[in-house]
Predict the 3D structure of the following.
Amino acid sequence: MVVAAGAKFNLRRDNGSSHNGISGYSSDGELSRISNSGCFSSVTEVERDPSCVSFTTFNILAPIYKRIDPQNQGLRESDFKSFWLSRNERILDCLLSESSSIMCLQEFWVGNEELVHMYEERLGDAGYNLFKLGRTNNRGDGLLTAIHKECLRVVDYRELLLNDCGDRVAQLLHVQSVAPSQNQKGSVPHEFLIVNTHLLFPHDSSLCVVRLNQVYQILQYVELYQRENRLKPMPIILCGDWNGSKRGHVYKFLRSQGFVSSYDTANQCSDSYADAHKWVSHRNHRGNICGVDFIWLCNPNQARKPLKTSWAEAVFSILKFQLRKGSMSENDAFAILKGDNYADAVTYFSFSEALRKAKLIGVPYGLCFQQLQDLWNQVDVDGNGVIDFEEFKQKIWNSACPDHVLENLNGCMEDVNTELEQQEAIGFMIKNAMLYPREVEKGLWPEDYSLSDHARLTAVFSPARMKCSGTQN
């Protein structure tokens, strides 16, 4: 795999701190309140199977961003130790009552040593290995991933620094189960890859392509890691705050790459517009509520398009959205792409100008020259140096990711290519997924919820044998 030109990111490799300790599930089989902390345990009796793996993702709202007084925008929780200390103690109470195998936190206040020590001490005593990563340019917050060593072993840990306008970062962990799973060759460890990240907030439409590129670079690096280490097919789990809903380009891009949303799968929500706002997980600084927190799963037998093809389709989807703002037809859109060119074709120059007007190039952190060239090569099918109307319809107007991208919404599908040599792999079945506070599952945001401006999402997966080809892509 070749990393896309213009992708300016750094890769780091590190080891997490190790702690001793034990942890267990709540003694209640069903949902229950934990003391006065306002916590729920979402682990039910059926999910106590030791072979299951549970994931929690939670943006815990860094105190440096939490506003205390709406009338005084400069007044933040970080100025009041008693406030942020009490709230983070309650957050830890909730996380420890959940006792997930893997915890992925965003907006973790890495710049405060006392808060970092509190998390290291309490999670460490509960038996977790911790991996923290601050955003670049000393933003103050970052990511924290906690892996319970009683059930999982970290094979490798990598850090991805995107070095973009949002100073975003990602963590990649290669994890192996302590208790082996059974396949036709006997007892083998269950391995999977997990990513923790936090995407840029879409402050305006020009950032759509930036956010898309953030996911593109993350998936590029996952592919690179798999290839360089000659890994066998295994599940890939992406956790985090994606700062975009099911109606967005990032969601559709990930769906086209074979990923399924664990919450939507477990709760039988489709990709349709009707289900787009069925649940929420965030009340943003503008007061809007939306569903932006996801635990994505891609199983080793999942059909996936080449990554560059999916990326190009997603970019063209953004372009098509811009062109359709005025309810224009495909003929009108083609005329705009032609510009002042009198020939019945789009030239490279007019194509570039159209992307510039759509704010896909010529803006800070927009598409680079090589990415522009990659898009052109995707559309100019016959390589004659111009795009005719049929190429435009096939590759731009009709190629954008549809609302219903893939029909595989159960996280585990049948063999996709019987001509390739098949091998057995261990993937995941999604057993359950739950949001807290529970009101958000009905699209409501409770006014008395004060832990964060995000809901906590937990999903439980169970290992499943499946047939697949020797590569996922």
